[in-house]
Write a structure and sequence with these properties.
Layout lengths: L19 H4 L1 H8 L3 E5 L2 E5 L3 E11 L5 H6 L6 E4 L20 E10 L6 E10 L3 E7 L2 H16 L13 E17 L7 E3 L1 H11 L3 E3 L8 E7 L7 E7 L3 E7 L2 H18 L4 E3 L1 H11 L1
Antiparallel strand pairs: 1-2, 2-8, 3-7, 3-8, 4-5, 5-6, 6-7, 8-13, 9-14, 10-11, 11-12, 12-13
Helix pairs in contact: 2-6
């Protein structure tokens, strides 16, 4: 009833100290994306630490899962949804629905108490009869371990859900996507209302660094869409969405190293471009001050 353990360190294989990818995930983010302040002439720029907003992961159990029995006997505290049906069903999926065809959906909150302050992850779990599992909403690496252990306990507590409860394990855990964000602002006594000149930054990214960066001021939420090459996967890219407020979203990454490189590149670029990249907007200042009330 445990996840597969590493023979060397006896930790779950996807969190073991022998696996540098998992071991160094938090260390990479903390060390390389910890925020900071850089002086530029009489002013400067400050940027917040990178925050993992959500991760999508997948893994599989080593046995088939009887979803109907699990649904009928699930604990009362679980929010469970299961509607067996064909993927080719003509019934349209409701907009905003969290359903996946032929899967059992579970909504549950996990708490990672290994960090201070504690981090809460409201996750959506989709379990398929063949044992495959997709999870969205995870915020920490440790939460992955907590979640798998909890699922094993839930599944094995109901008779008939799996053939060999004592041998149920989770394996082949992979991060499918990481969404993260941070903010960058000029050093001012009152930073509210200071914005990034997006067209200027786009020109710098395209002409100076030969990057793929698009920008349209006509979109509902105008932002620069910068494509940054993965340092881990050949021919793969991550996306950096840069908004005039200084909010920056990094999405599409699967590895901490890609987050780190993307974070470093855009902060270095903004710092080197200097204060000419920022301007003050009184309407933005009013909007930001209203949010703080």
């Amino acid at each position: 009833m445990e996840t597969l353990l590493c023979e060397s360190c006896k930790s779950p294989t996807f969190l073991c100290k022998c696996n540098n990818t998992w071991k160094l995930f938090n260390e990479t983010i903390t060390t390389n994306c910890g925020g900071g302040t850089v002086r530029i002439d009489d002013s400067g720029v400050s940027f917040t630490p990178l925050r993992i907003s959500t991760m999508t992961i997948c893994f599989n159990f080593n046995q088939f899962i009887n979803l109907q029995i699990l649904k009928d006997n699930s604990p009362d505290f679980l929010s469970v949804n299961y509607k067996p049906g064909s993927k080719k069903s003509k019934e349209k999926k409701k907009k905003g629905s969290d359903e996946m065809f032929n899967s059992l959906g579970i909504k549950i909150c996990f708490v990672d108490r290994s960090v201070e302050p504690m981090i809460f992850s409201n996750v959506n779990i989709f379990i398929f009869f063949n044992g495959k599992v997709t999870v969205s909403g995870v915020k920490t690496i440790n939460t992955i371990n907590i979640m798998i252990q909890e699922l094993i306990e839930i599944i094995t507590s109901v008779e008939g859900v799996v053939e060999n409860p004592e041998n149920l394990i989770g394996e082949n855990v992979k991060i499918q996507m990481i969404c993260s964000d941070f903010k960058i602002k000029p050093l001012k006594e009152d930073p509210d209302g200071w914005c990034i000149k997006q067209e200027l930054l786009q020109n710098v990214l395209v002409n100076k660094f030969n990057m793929s960066a698009t920008f349209s001021s006509l979109s509902r939420y105008p932002g620069i869409n910068l494509k940054f090459p993965s340092v881990i996967e050949k021919d793969k890219q991550i996306s950096l969405l840069i908004f005039r407020s200084g909010s920056i979203i990094i999405t599409g990454a699967k590895h901490a190293q890609d987050l780190s490189e993307g974070y470093k590149f855009i902060t270095d670029t903004i710092i080197k471009t200097g204060m000419a990249l920022f301007y003050h907007d009184i309407n933005e200042e009013i909007k930001q001050k209203k949010k703080k009330k």
